Amino acid sequence: MADIAVLGHGVVGSGVLEVLLTHRESITRRAKEEIRVKHILDLRDFPQLPYAGLFTKDFNQILQDPDVKIVVECMGGLEPAYGFAKACLENGKSFVTSNKELVAAKGAELIALAQKNNLNFLFEASVGGGIPIIRPISQCLAANEVGEIAGILNGTTNFILTKMIREQMGFEEALAMAQELGYAERDPSADVEGADACRKICILASLAFGTHVYPQDVHTEGITQITLGDVAYAEAWGGVIKLIGMVKMGENGKISILVAPMFIHRESQLANVDDVFNGILVRGDATGDVVFYGKGAGKLPTASAVVADVIDCVKHFKARKYLYWEDAKPDYVEPFARMAGEFFVHIKGPGSSDQAFAAAQALFPQAARIIRKDEEPGEAGFSAAGLTPAGLDEKLAQLKKAGMSVCGRILISDF
Q: Is 386 in a helix, a strand, or coil?
């Protein structure tokens, strides 16, 4: 018998209980031992539930119970989750979490603490919900040198962009629909401003490259400035716009990492990842591109990943699972301003569209014009390669001085 405790009985926590109860026999068979929930921590009461007697409001009751060997955290947020995780790992209890904020901010410390005490700190559900990604990178692709990871990591932004692309729905209308359908988090700004995707790509980067990448060191852009005009230019260019989290190891040993809307070619394996689905592309030197696809959130998909970690913990009570990265090294992230790439630029001037593009071409000799359907007078779009964001900003400032309006700039992907 393996006794566990669950912290939080919200969407994911209640899903964990549902999965454990519904699949009790098969989980016991796979874990080679029965898994029993002994405590559930929540400040609320649930008298109507068949397991109402398991609830407690006192974390110390869980911490001081010698029978509880695994604690599952499904609360979210940095505190009190961090304090609970640290206390558990210091007191002989392995810790399983779905909390991306906790892992992104404190992963290196908690992994090291688990290693010191011969315990497990597992977090499969923190990145892709029900999409398996942590195990594949750490185990199945272990023979590869992973050079790059790129992914659509947030279902809310992907749903909004899909509505804008397919139905010509404006951003605000699409966001309202996402909230109405329950696809947006309680604070939708965490999604549309890119914060959610940032935490997830930081976790994947830390795992792939062995050094802790902190969200505050990552350049992050959301989708609030994307317009239907940008969508139309992307279509004319031959692709779609997606919010992408991307990390790449440079030849100089520095990590290039960012979250931003990008033009994606229709031939890309990520171009057709639509609605609330997520897709994560891992580029290995031996395997080439491997893509993981599925729902990145939701009660039961996320709960299934949490329970899989619990089963792993039970099977590895005496043989610790090896997941590890070190704390951050100085200057390990390449500044965004120096990351060379290709950009789409959307401008508008007082004259004709031809005149607007000619003004741009004087500053961007390599510019390739993109003409969209129903282009407005004075409006022009173009792509330009071999630019750093800093260099691009300097040229755009000159365009503004010449009387041009810069309506937007969007990165162009190379995958």
A: strand
